[in-house]
Design a protein that fits this description.
The protein is an alpha/beta fold and about 300 residues long. The protein folds into two domains: about 60 residues, no CATH class; about 200 residues, 3-Layer(aba) Sandwich (Rossmann fold), CATH 3.40.50. It is about 45% helix and about 15% strand. It contains ten helices and eight strands. Strands 1-2-4-3-5-6-7-8 form an eight-stranded mixed beta sheet, with helices on both faces. Helix 5 links the parallel strand 5 and strand 6. Helix 1 crosses helix 7, helix 4 crosses helix 5 and helix 6 packs across helix 7. The chain starts with a helix and ends with a helix.
């Protein structure tokens, strides 16, 4: 019995939809070097490659994660070190995010350990797990710092790095303070926000299924990556920062995280006229003085 053209079209469309639902959309969420993302970055001229320095005097160190990946970081020592600062970049970026302020931080007496998160920069891996495995990677480098010196350890995270930093602080109390910039409170909520931003409408059931699939692809429990719930276990000192005009991650998420913090040593800083990626530019010298005063 021959199948008519309508039947063929239905089968093809169904197969394409199933592939999109089960593979393409979930990979857009967790696969860092996704071809579509890479093409978009190439067109925009923002694909600068992984080999960027944090500082000319950096020393590259690597550790092997619990699942066998080589995770890489740049370590730069200050001549008059008073504290260690772990620097954690945003999604689809690299540790070189912090190169613009590295010299200033070193001059202020801070050793810097800037990490390429798994699947980013020089680190191995294919998928981002939004803190599930990254927090364990951070603890490996906390181990390293505690053997290097006996200085206090802080963490400075931006966007995704902020979510990783919050989860790390909740599980590793050797990190004594944190600077958290422009991060989200719930993994599923921010995925739905991004879907609406790029598609133009909400389809929450589709995103929920895609998130469930990300857990299978990247082998992590996508239902537990909730920075807000991590905040409920954080007793260390926190400076939380968000741009008032952030259209990627709403400042309301930053305030939700701040309100959930268990610590009483906390401060929330709003940067006027700042979006998601330009806190430093909009905040300017006044912002950096605030950050360094907090670290002191």
């Amino acid at each position: 019995m021959k199948m008519n053209k309508k039947g063929v079209v239905i089968i093809v469309l169904s197969a394409a939809s199933l592939y999109l639902l089960c593979f393409s959309l979930p990979k857009l969420i967790v696969q860092i070097h996704h071809p579509i993302i890479q093409l978009a970055k190439y067109i925009k001229g923002t694909n600068n490659g992984p080999r960027q320095q944090v500082h000319p005097n950096e020393r590259i160190i690597s550790r092997t994660s619990s699942d066998g990946l080589n995770i890489t970081a740049s370590y730069v020592q200050s001549k008059q070190a008073r504290k260690n600062i772990i620097l954690v970049h945003g999604i689809r970026s690299t540790k070189a995010d912090f190169s613009a302020i590295a010299a200033r931080m070193l001059d202020s007496g801070y050793n810097l350990l800037a990490i390429d998160l798994r699947a980013h920069g020089l680190s191995e891996g294919k998928y981002c797990t939004f803190g599930a495995k990254e927090k364990e990677d951070i603890s490996m480098f906390v181990d390293y710092l505690t053997t290097e010196n006996n200085l206090p350890i802080g963490i400075w995270g931006r966007s995704l790095g902020g979510a990783v930093a919050l989860q790390s602080m909740a599980t590793d109390k050797r990190i004594s303070f944190g600077i958290i910039e422009s991060t989200f409170s719930y993994f599923d909520k921010i995925c739905k926000d991004y879907f609406k931003r790029y598609v133009g409408f909400r389809l929450d059931w589709l995103v929920d299924f895609a998130i469930w699939r990300t857990g299978h692809l990247a082998q992590f429990n996508s239902d537990i990556e909730r920075p807000k719930e991590s905040c409920q276990r954080i007793t260390q000192k926190i400076l939380m920062v968000h741009g008032q005009d952030d259209s990627f991650i709403s400042m309301n998420y930053g305030k939700d995280n701040f309100d959930a913090l268990a610590t009483e040593q906390k401060e929330f800083l709003e940067i006027p006229n700042a979006g998601h990626a330009n806190l430093w530019q909009r905040g300017g010298e006044k912002y950096f003085r605030k950050v360094f005063d907090f670290i002191h």
